[in-house]
Amino acid sequence: MHIIGGLIRLYFTLLAGGLSLVVIAAFYALTCIGLMQMFRKAGVEGWRAWVPFYRNYVLCEITMGCGWYFLFGFIVPLAPFVNALYAVEVTLSYGESVPVGILYFFFPFIMKYIIGFGDSSYVGPMNLNDQMAAAFGGRKKASAKTAKDEAQQGSASAPEEAEYADGQKADTAAGTAETGSCDAEHAENENAAEEAASAAESNGAAETEITAENEAAEE
pLDDT (tens digit, 9 = 90+) per residue, 166-191? Predict the structure, then answer.
């Protein structure tokens, strides 16, 4: 009886342990799906979200510019403050505001899905001035800043594009002129050849006529 009782307890212990592993694996998979969609918005392969620790490195890299910052989260006395900072940095990098970052700190599982599958746009890491500008403005200010930066980059690259286009036109004109010169030279050569052939024919006809006259005179 003691043996049977021990086997039964062992069975239920293993069953409980197996169910716990299944639950943990399912929860981990659900967190990975939300993070995977966030990575895709940032142009990062989704499979990186499934690798433990490495996904934290990638998240810090795309939101704070340095992946090794995630190691500060393992310093126990600083962990709450560091994780709060991480949450704010992540939400700002996706065009959200500080209040959303606070929600991310307390409910990361839910917020990953909201940011990943919502209408948030990835804007990348920000310096301190940009963070202060977007801290309480959220997506609108971040989007406006991104549009302004793109406009400035476009205006800065416009002279270079115009110069490149002028160079292309000049090269095309030079190539056309060179082709025209070659065609003209070829035409002149053909005309000269035709004139030489005509002169040769005329000379041959004259010689034939002279020969005929000489034969007639001899007769």
Answer: 666 666 655 565 665 656 566 566 66
pTM: 0.53
Q: What is the DSSP letter of 65?
A: S
Q: Enumerate long-range contacts of 102-109, CB under 8 Å, 24 or more apart.
A: 108/31, 109/30, 109/31, 109/34
Q: What is the mean pLDDT of the chain?
A: 74
Within 10 Å of residue 156's Cβ, how many Cβ atoms? 9
- Cβ atoms of 85 and 106 within 8 Å: the answer is no
CB 59 within 8 A of CB 69: no
Is 65 within 8 Å of 82 (Cβ atoms)? Answer: no
Cβ neighbors of 50 (< 8 A, separation 6 or more) are 32, 36
- Structure token pair of residue 59: 């998240």
Question: Contact, 38 vs 112, CB < 8 A?
Answer: yes
CA-to-CA distance for 59 and 48, rounded, in angstroms?
10
Kindly tell me if the per-residue pLDDT of 41 is higher than 70.
Answer: yes
**Which of residues 33 and 209 earns the better pLDDT score?**
33
